[in-house]
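step: validate -> pass
step: tokenize input -> pass
step: predict -> running
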Amino acid sequence: MKYYEILFSPTGGTKKVADILMNTLCDASIQVDLMDREADFAAQTFQPQDVCLAAVPSFGGRVPAVAMERLGNMKGNGARVVLVAVYGNRAYEDTLLELEDGLRAAGFRPIAAVAAVAEHSIMRQFAAGRPDQADRRELEAFGAEIARRIQNDTAPEHLGLPGNRPYHPFGGVLLTPQGTRSCTGCETCAKLCPVGAIDPERPRQTDKARCISCMACVAACPEGARKVSSLLVAASAKMLKKACADRKANELF
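step: predict -> pass
step: emit ->
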């Protein structure tokens, strides 16, 4: 039996949650990075005795399309999978349900699902510092329960996840990072962009048609030279302030 941690984590929040859960399940796991646009995910094959943890951020209440496509190309072959959706304290809406549907279609066997909160990837004031110590304790308790399910090899036919079919439409990309004058042309952002939206020859520019607003380039830039419009961020924060005001709880299904 092998353990796999399958991640799409542009700014690190999803990885923090996934690491806490995975560390309660096993001592070592194999990492599969869904951010790697050069990887051949169709060649990723699992076995029925394997345990996978598939963790994605919620983008507008949905699984990022590129992450869902890459997961769908894998061959689950009956491997058990724990679904994880991480969101910035607003709502995850159809994310877990979409993730369950996609992974079942790829041949995986979902055994549990977790919705968890991490610091918002754009408006950092929302869920700032999360997952915190209280989250860690809760997620570790979730992990212990999931470990029992793995040991008993129980996999319900349906997890009873919240959400709607058909899924609500994705609202599209509103915030596209661009390079500032501080950009040194190091190409770090171009290498890490999961969709190839940054030309390494012109790293200050971003292809708006490709960009998914994941903010990986902003988080990775060593010079802090990639920014999104401060006016748009302020307007978005004002719209989300009420929805994000209360501390959302983590959930185990």
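step: describe -> Residues 232 and 238 are 10 Å apart (CA to CA).
step: cleanup -> pass
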